[in-house]
User: Fold this.
Amino acid sequence: MAGALAGASLAAPASAATTTAASAQHTATTTQAAAKPQSPLYTRIVWNKAVRRGGTITYSVKSTNQGEWATDVAGLFAKLPRGASKIRVVSRSKAFCEVSGRDLFCLYDTLNSGRSASLKVKVWLKRSTRGTAVAEFGHFSIDVPAGVDITNEEELNKLDIQNQINWKTFKTRIVR
Assistant:
């Protein structure tokens, strides 16, 4: 199922926008804006504000269902920074994640009202990486109409997931 979901039907364009660094921590929040689902997500991301060359950036993500209904299909996309030598999801709860190159795709288990899913992503940078590392995260929560088979790629395309992703960028300064 993950291959079909992470395939062309869900591949959303993402432009690198921000990143963070190592010593100080910074938080940001995003909320679902498009087509008001019955089970909107509130996503909180904590990341490093600055990091040394060759260091690691850790993104801690927690998504909470703020609606009154359980989620049908909910998850997270990410375009991680350039200059990464290794990317790993080091911990996760209630989520299935897949990394391909610099792209991350996570699909959450069904989240009942008020419940959360969390994950931690670690990005190891090359020693040659300079400047600012930029990552972009986007989450989605989609209400699937009755009778739609979410394992069928053709029916998934009809849900128009790409237009329901709320993107946010995160910057990390790379210091000497």
Q: What stands out?
A: Confidence is low (pLDDT under 50) at residues 1-24, 30-35. The chain has one domain: 2-175.
